Amino acid sequence: MTPAEKPPAETAFRRVMLKISGEALMGPQGYGLHPPTVERIAAEVKSVRDMGVEICMVIGGGNIFRGLQGSAQGMERTTADYMGMLATVMNALAMQSALDQLGVHTRVISAITMNEVAEPYIRRRAVRHLEKKRVCIFAAGTGNPYFTTDTAATLRANEMSCEAIFKGTKVDGVYDKDPNKHADAVRYDTVSYDDCLSKRLGVMDASAIALARDNSLPIIVFSLDEPGGFRGILAGQGTYTRVQG
Question: What is the Cβ-side half-sphere exposure of residue 107, based on CA atoms within 13 angstroms?
Fold first, then answer.
């Protein structure tokens, strides 16, 4: 690693992927976008960007439309999945707007061509944006049905040579059972990819975990609801679970 490639002094990571669910943007509403929540998450992203870390993002679309839900209600699965991909574009544009207002240069990069609102995905161009300290928000999943945004985040993280995936959730790590339902739930400090799969711990879907495992890409699960949590973990503080080999 050359001096120019060394990570910033404050953090062990030079480039990371932040994966959050669409539900994270709906705040207390239960549906859609909650602007104060979007702004709060954008401020978290800016604080990490200001540390010198290069950031990619993937945001789910479950606050607007979830392909599996539509399929379960009788809609053809491929059509439902494409609708879910379009929902992720809406969330990406909302996050871009919030980041722009904070003075953070951002690019929405879509796996489905829609030149009027987003750039098409070209790997080398996306890498160049990151090198210029722009936040890249990858939208529309992988561009293919039957793949989740978890898998899209892992795919893009590998393509962008990210050093870790940060999975923002409503709890501060991975537990052996749902901590909201079981008072005796135990949090893991570290857990293996294979244990995540065999114990069905629900970190990400199986395809995403397997892709991360095959490329030795660590997944760090933390609470997105904790103020300063994203920056704190990058600075070596806070509570989280690290998924690794």
Answer: 23
pLDDT digits (tens, 9 = 90+) for 164-211: 999 999 889 999 888 888 889 999 999 999 999 999 998 999 999 999
Q: d(Cα 178, Cα 107) in Å, to the nearest integer?
A: 36
Q: What ranges make up the beta strands (E) of the chain?
A: 15-20, 54-59, 106-110, 119-120, 135-139, 165-169, 174-175, 187-188, 190-192, 219-223, 241-244
Cβ 62 vs Cβ 22: under 8 Å: yes
Nearest to 208 by CA among 196, 190, 191, 222: 196
In the chain, what are the domains? Answer: 13-244 (3.40.1160.10)
Whether residue 78 contacts residue 156, with contact meaning beta carbons closer than 8 Å, is answered with no
Check: pTM over 0.90? Answer yes or no. yes
Residues contacting residue 1 through CB under 8 Å, at least 6 positions apart: none
Q: For residue 123, report the phi and psi dihedrals to the nearest 5 degrees.
A: -55, -50
Task: Report the 10 Å Cβ neighbour count for 232.
Answer: 18
